[in-house]
Amino acid sequence: MDMHPTDLIAPSKTLEVDALAKKLISEGKDVVNLTAGEPDFPTPRPIVEKAVEALEKGYTKYTDSNGLPALREAISKYLKAKKSIEFSADEIVVSNGGKQSLFNAFASILDSGDEVILFAPLWVSYPAQIILSRGQPVIVKTKFENGFMPTKDELLIAVRENTKAIVVNSPNNPSGGIYDYDTLKMIAQIANERGIFVITDEVYDDLVYEGTHKSMYGLVREELLIYINAFSKSHSMTGWRVGYAATKNKDVKKKMSKIQSHVASNINTIAQYAAIAACETDNTYMVEEFKKRRKFIIEKAREYGLDFLEPKGAFYLFFKVGDNDEEFCKRLLAEKLVAAVPGSAFEMPGFVRISFANSLNILEEGMSRIKEFMDSHA
Ligand SMILES: Cc1ncc(COP(=O)(O)O)c(C=O)c1O
To answer: Which of 143, 289, 317, 319 has its CA 20 to 30 A from that of 296?
Structure first.
C-alpha cells in the first residue's frame, strides 16, 4: 500500500526546539532563546489601531476568499511603490502567512511525481509542503565557500524532465545570505529555457543590511513566476498571519484561489484591515535596530572565533559547529540553557542557527554562554 504523504513528513524542527525552550522557560529556567524566527518588536501602533477600528466597526464577517479587494489593491500599490514589482489586485491571493501562500503555490502546480528543486540550507517547510502536494523535493546542497549560493553546474545536475519548479529564497533563512544578481539571472535563464516555474520566497526582502536585495520579478518569464511575500517579518506581524502569493499566470492564480477558498476561506478579516495599514507603515526603525544587533553579533562571533558568513539580510547567524549539530544544540540547551536550531533542520548539518531578533542584552548573554560552552568543550 502506498504511504500517505503525512507519513513522510516530520513536525517542523524549528518549532520543536522553540517549544522545548518555551517549556523550560515555563518551568522557571533562565533560558536564552535564540531560536526565534520572528522580530521581537511589537506590531506598529497604526496597524494595531486599524485592527481595533475594524473590530469596532463590526468588520467581523467573511470577505472575498482571495482577500479584501481593498487589501489586494493596497498590496498592489505597495509592491509597485516600494519594490517596483507590478501585480494587479486580481493577480494576488492573500493567505495565512507566507507559509500558506507557499503551500497554495505548490498544491496548484504539482502533479504526482513532479520534482521541485530546493537549495540547502533551506527553510524547513518547503520539503514537507511539496510532499503534501504529492511532489518530490530535490535538494541541491550549496557550499559555504560559495556563500551558500548554487552554481550553474550544481543546478543543472538537478534539473530533470519532471522538474516542475525551483524555489528561491533570498534573503535566505537560515544563512542570511542574499543571492547576487548573476546567480538570480542564471537560475532564471535555466527556468525560462526549460519552462520551469520559479517560486520566489521574498519574505525577508525588507530586512537587508548590506548590499541590495534583487527580486526574481522581472527575470523570470511572467507566466512562470510565483511571487511570495508576507507582512510577518517586515512589519513584525507574525501572529496576524497575513501573506500573499502573486502571479500573472491566470491558470495558477485560479487554482490558488480555489485552494484558498476551500481550505480556509478568507484569512482573519481583522488582520486584513491591519495589513492595509501595514502597507503604509514605515518599518525602517526596525531595520535600523536589526543593523545594530547584527553588528554586535558579528563582532562577538568574530571575537569568539566562530566560522560563519556575515549575514546580509534576515536576522540569523549561521555558524559551523563540526559534525554533530543536533548534539551541539541539545548540550548547549542542557548545559548553558541557550536554545539554538541545528543546521540539520535546514538540510545543512554541521551548522547552527541563532537569531538576532533579540535585544542586545539577550544577545550579549547568549553569546557569552555560547563562548563558555565552546571553551568547556574545546
Ligand atoms: C523563508 C521563510 N519563508 C516563509 C516563512 C513563512 O512566514 P509566515 O509567518 O508569513 O507564514 C518563513 C517564516 O519563518 C520563512 O522563514
So the answer is: 143
**pLDDT per residue as tens digits for the range 343-352:** 999 999 999 9
CATH, residue 33: 3.90.1150.10
Using the mean position of ligand 1's atoms as its centre, give its distance from the Cα of residue 29 in Å: 28
Q: If pLDDT is split at 50, 70 and 90, which confidence band does 111 have? A: very high
**C-alpha angle 265-269-272 in degrees, rounded to nearest 5:** 105
Distance CA 340, CA 32 (A): 9
Same domain, 223 and 78: yes
Q: 243: Cβ below 6 Å to ligand 1? A: yes
Q: What are 117's strand-pairing partners?
A: 138, 166
Q: How many CB atoms lie within 10 A of CB 30?
A: 9
Give the distance (Å) from ligand 1 centre to CA of residue 97.
7
Domains of the chain: total: 2
pTM, full prediction: 0.96
Regarding whether 274 and 298 lie in a shared domain, the answer is no
Indicate if the pLDDT at residue 17 is higher than 90.
Answer: no
Query: Is the CB of residue 201 below 6 angstroms from any atom belonging to ligand 1?
Result: yes
Q: What is the dihedral of CA 8, 14, 20, 26, to 10 degrees?
A: -130
Cβ-based neighbours of 192, under 8 Å, separated by 6 or more: 220, 221, 224
Residue pLDDT, tens place only, 319-357: 999 889 999 998 999 899 999 999 999 999 999 999 999
Query: What is the rounded distance in angstroms from the CA atom of residue 367 to the CA atom of residue 90?
Result: 47
Residue 315: CB within 6 Å of ligand 1? Answer: no
37 lines ligand 1 (CB under 6 A): yes
Report which DSSP code applies to 172: -
Q: What is the DSSP string of 289-336?
A: HHHHHHHHHHHHHHHTT--BPPP-BTTEEEEE--S-HHHHHHHHHHHH
pLDDT at 6 over 80: no
54 in a domain, yes or no?
A: no
Q: Choose one of 233, 346, 353 to mutate for the ligand 1 pocket test, by most ligand atoms within 8 angstroms of C-beta.
A: 233
